[in-house]
Amino acid sequence: MKKRRYFLVVLALATIMTAGIGRAWAYFTTYAQAYGGKTIHLGDETEITESFSAETKHIQIASEAGSEPVYIRVKAFAGKDYTENGVIDHTPVGSGEDWTEQKADGFYYYVKPVEGGSSTSVLELKIPDLKGRENKDPLNVIVIYESTPVRYDENGDPVGYDGVDWNETLDRHEITAPVTPAAPGSGEGGSEG
What we know:
By secondary structure, this protein is mainly beta. The protein contains two helices and twelve strands; from the N terminus they run ααββββββββββββ. The protein has one domain (about 45-190): Immunoglobulin-like (Sandwich), CATH 2.60.40. It has helices at about 1-20, 20-30; strands at about 45-55, 55-65, 70-75, 80-85, 85-90, 95, 100, 105-115, 125, 140-150, 170-180, 190. The protein is rod-shaped, with a radius of gyration of 33 Å. It starts with a helix and ends with a strand.
């Protein structure tokens, strides 16, 4: 009799446990598939173009086609001359459409995102007091530029150049070019080597 009761209890438990197996089985066998796709290439390649005339460096930075949108900043350095009267600073002073200088870090920022295949407007870097260098060695002007990816807010709008992380630079280049003062009476700027 004990065996029969034991058998009935086991049979009742088995019936209760298998009652929900149909739903569980359907859950474990249901799946979804997706077909198709699109390859995207994210990256950034930029290239600087420089020219020199009338004691001014002309800087323009282009983003390679297919590159992700980036913000760009530029910094220029030049030497200081020590004269009888003191120090003459030849650090370039910049201006250009959509460029803004941040005195705190000395960089010129391009305020608009640069899309792949487009470029910045020209940044004019005027080199002060270059005329007083007629008989001196060329002045070495160093231009550094960096790019960082554009980030977007929750509405899909780009965060401004001043709201991105500039520690996350994608591209950084340094261009060193000596600038020779113009010959007296030539009317032109010096040359760039």
